[in-house]
């Protein structure tokens, strides 16, 4: 919020929102989708076999993390552009929706509840995009353009990592599987992004480079 507040006008704050959302999504989607892919192995490895059923719950909730990067900065943007009341209404609406999801999904168990919350998070992107259009004039297509490359490449990574774990590393230990799959996932994500969305990476770097340059300069000092 302080960062948005220092910008001069609504147009600058909207541009700042796009920059930070695009940059965070670049790392959030692969991190959380990678967690979703490895959730079962991680839970058993860290907490033991008796918690194995929690792996599915962690996997579903991790899928929410990526899409949350799209909406995480909505509240600060609304507050600094004079629409704090809209942000408050949005928060209240999310509270009501979450209560409804709990009421209907909880009787079917924790796994169903986790799945319902994941579905709610993705469906909830639609009203958030419409709200940004109405409040600050940011077209939904631009937000989707900023986040789709990260979402798509992370989804490709997720599917390949799951396939390798199920069909190739079936007899491997959980620890060894994680050691193999983490760098494999990173390579898949990075190579897919470079192959399909290289121009997007250049855009992100052009936005971040002015901020990163002073840090790099200080690190290079003897």
Defining key terms:
single chain, 222 residues, mainly alpha
Low-pLDDT stretches: none
Based on secondary structure, the structural category is mainly alpha
SSE arrangement, N to C = HHHHHHHHHH
- By DSSP (H or I, 4+ residues per run), the number of helices equals 10
> What is the gyration radius calculated from CA atoms?
20 Å
Count the domains.
1
Number of strands: 0
Shape: globular
Describe this structure in words.
The chain is mostly helical and 222 residues long. It has one domain (2-220). 85% of the residues lie in helices and 0% in strands. The chain contains ten helices and no strands. It has helices spanning 2-5, 10-47, 54-71, 74-80, 84-105, 110-123, 125-136, 140-167, 174-196, 198-220. Helix 2 runs antiparallel to helix 9 and helix 3 (54-71) runs parallel beside helix 6. The model has no long low-confidence stretch (mean pLDDT 89).
């Amino acid at each position: 919020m302080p960062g948005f507040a220092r910008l001069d006008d609504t147009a600058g704050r909207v541009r700042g929102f796009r920059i930070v959302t695009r940059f965070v999504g670049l790392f959030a989607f692969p991190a959380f989708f990678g967690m979703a892919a490895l959730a079962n192995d991680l839970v058993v490895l860290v907490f033991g076999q008796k918690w194995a059923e929690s792996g599915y719950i962690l996997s579903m909730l991790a899928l929410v993390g990526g899409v949350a990067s799209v909406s995480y900065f909505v509240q600060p943007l609304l507050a600094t552009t004079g629409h704090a009341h809209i942000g408050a209404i949005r928060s209240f609406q999310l509270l009501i929706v979450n209560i409804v999801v709990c009421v209907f999904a909880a009787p079917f168990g924790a796994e169903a509840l986790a799945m319902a919350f994941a579905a709610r998070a993705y469906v909830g992107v639609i009203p958030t995009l419409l709200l940004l259009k109405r409040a600050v004039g940011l077209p939904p297509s631009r937000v989707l353009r900023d986040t789709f490359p990260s979402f798509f490449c992370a989804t490709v990574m997720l599917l390949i990592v799951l396939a390798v774990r199920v069909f190739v590393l079936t007899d491997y230990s959980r620890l060894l599987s994680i050691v193999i799959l983490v760098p494999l996932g990173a390579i898949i994500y990075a190579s897919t992004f470079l192959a399909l969305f290289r121009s997007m990476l250049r855009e992100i770097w052009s936005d971040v480079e002015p901020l990163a340059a002073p840090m790099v300069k200080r690190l290079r000092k003897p």
